[in-house]
Every structure is written in C-alpha cells, then in structure tokens.
Design goal:
Elements lengths: L4 H28 L6 E8 L10 E4 L2 E13 L2 E9 L11 E6 L6 E6 L13 E4 L5 H30 L3 H8 L1 H34 L6 H6 L1 H36 L4 H7 L1 H30 L4 H14 L1
Parallel strand pairs: 1-7, 2-6, 5-7
Antiparallel strand pairs: 1-4, 2-3, 3-4, 5-6
C-alpha cells in the first residue's frame, strides 16, 4: 500500500527530530568527555588505580577539566593513566601538582583529583608526567577497623575482669575501695592535709604582708630604702672609716711612745727610772708641804694682828658685795 504525502511528511519529521536528538545527545556527552574542545594529554603514574575506568572525570581543585582516556599496566607496581585535559587549564597546573584517585561521593564512580602544588614551579606542558599520591583504600580501612575491633574487644574483656576484681575487693585498688578502716585513715589524712594547707595559706599571707611592709617608709627597711637616709649612712660610714684611720695613726704614735719609754729614751723615762731624782722630788714636795703649812699659820696670825685686822675685814666685805 502506497503511503500518502502526509504520512511521508510525518515520517520525515520523526526521522529529523530523532536525528536532531541523537546529535544533541552526542554533543552533550562529547562535550562532557572533552571530545570537541581543544585538549591535550597528561600522564599520571599510580601503583593502584582502585577501580578507575575509562571516561572517568579528571578534576583540578574540584573543577572538571578532563577525562581518563587510557590505562596502561607497565609492571606489577606501575600503572600509567592517560588523561585528556582542557588546554585552557594548562597554565594553571604547575609541575609540582599531585594526582590522587578518589570517589565521586560515597558510592559514585572513581575520579582523578589533581591538587595544586605548594612551590613556585613553572606550568606543566602537554605530555608531562605528574606525580601521584596513593590514598588509603577501603580494604585497608576495613582491615584496620577489624584489628581495632579485636583490640577493643580484648580491652573490654580486661576492663570487665579488672572491674570485677575491684568489686570483689581484690588487689590494692579493691582493698582501698572496700576497706572501711583504710578509708577512715585516708579521710583523716585528707583532714590533716586540709589543716596543713590552711596553715600554709596563713603563713603565705603573713609573708606577703611582711614583703609589702618592706616598702613602707615608716618601717626599718623602708627607712633604709630611702635614698636620703642611705646617703647619710654612706657618709657616716665614710667618716667612721676616716676616723678609724686617724685612730690607727694615734695608736701607732702611742705605741712608738711606749716603746721609747721602755727603751729608756726621753724625759719621761729619765724621770720615772732615776731613783735619786725621785727622792729629790719627794723631798722637795715634803718641804713645799711644810712651807705651805707654815705660811697658812703666818697668814692666820696676821689676820689677828691689830695692824692688819682692818685690811682683812675690808677684803671680806668686798667679797660679800661681789657675791
């Protein structure tokens, strides 16, 4: 049965629409996979790609900049990953950038993350190989968690055993917790420590008061701290030092004089050591005493003489007026 023109037109519109949708899908997928832009190659070397597949995204600082185009197994420890990178991003990637493999979310596909370097290296060139960092895998995490769980189980068992022994009063800690006498002694000891601490606090307060009193000008230390008083004390000490030097000179001279006397030099030694001279001096003093007594007797006799009685009376009256 021959188709009508309207049916042909409808079929043509359907085919054109489907073709247009196909082209749009291919364009968006190709644009996402960096198939139509200006791109270039970079290579990263890993020891484990952790399930990375062709077409997975490549990100730089969280921005999609390319896709994985090839994975080549070089040896048992080296895997080369070929990446198609948008050429406009090359000036921003430095030679010390680091590549690592991560997941896109918790259950998403794997991606390559390129982190900026910390140095001042030059920009990377097409075809260069960048360094990589192997992150901890999920299997390693699960293995570590398994070991941690075993250790936690052992630790819990030990804690239960220790707690049970403490509750039953076994061991030093159990005895300390269950012995009422020891608890009483400990309480008494703590009371003594509290009393001692109180006394220590009072001593410290008194010491602080004493230290603060050192700055009081009315105290002895405060007076000594006064610069004027200190200068006076310094002057007194200097004068005492000078006086001490003068006294030393006098003592030296006195010692020399005593030596001269002991050695028989000088008039004092002559007067003290000549026995004849001493006798003459004693005789002279005796005669002087006798002469003084006779003179007093003569004066007393003259006072009673009628010739000189008037003179002595005038002398007495003159003394009384003067007094």
């Amino acid at each position: 049965m021959e188709k009508t023109d309207s049916e042909k037109i409808k079929l043509g519109i359907f085919v054109i629409t489907g073709l247009a949708l196909f082209i749009l899908v291919v364009y968006f997928i190709g644009n996402k996979q960096k198939m139509f832009g200006t791109t270039d190659h970079l290579t990263a070397v890993f020891s484990n790609v952790n399930g990375l597949q062709l077409g997975n995204n490549v990100r730089y600082s969280g921005i999609n900049i390319g896709t994985v185009r090839g994975i080549e197994m070089v040896n048992d420890t080296t895997i080369n990953v070929d990446m198609i990178i948008d050429k406009s991003m090359f000036p921003h990637i430095k030679k010390d950038a680091l590549a690592s493999i991560g997941s896109d979310g918790l259950v998403g596909s794997m991606v390559i993350n390129i982190a900026p370097g910390k140095g001042n290296q030059s920009q990377i060139e097409p075809g260069d190989i960048i360094q990589s960092v192997n992150r901890i895998r999920t299997d390693d995490l699960l293995s570590t968690l398994s070991v941690t769980n075993k250790n936690a189980a052992l630790l819990t068992a030990d804690l239960l055993r220790i707690t049970k022994e403490i509750t039953q009063g076994k061991g030093s800690l159990g005895t300390l917790l269950n012995d009422t006498i020891m608890a009483s002694d400990l309480k008494q000891t703590m009371n003594y420590l509290k009393i001692t601490s109180k006394g220590t606090t009072e001593i410290v307060e008194n010491l602080n008061k004493t230290v603060m009193a050192l700055g009081d000008k009315n105290s002895v230390i405060g007076v000594l701290n006064d610069p004027v008083i200190a200068q006076k004390i310094r002057t007194i000490v200097t004068n005492l030092d000078q006086s001490s030097q003068e006294i030393n000179k006098v003592v030296t001279n006195l010692n020399a004089t005593v030596l001269n006397i002991k050695n028989g030099n000088g008039a004092i030694n002559y007067l003290s050591n000549d026995p004849n001279l001493v006798k003459k001096i004693d005789s002279t003093m005796t005669n002087l005493n006798k002469a003084t007594i006779l003179l007093n007797e003569d004066l007393e006799a003259m006072k009673h003489s009628f010739l000189l009685r008037g003179y002595f009376k005038k002398q007495e009256k003159a003394k009384q007026k003067a007094n």
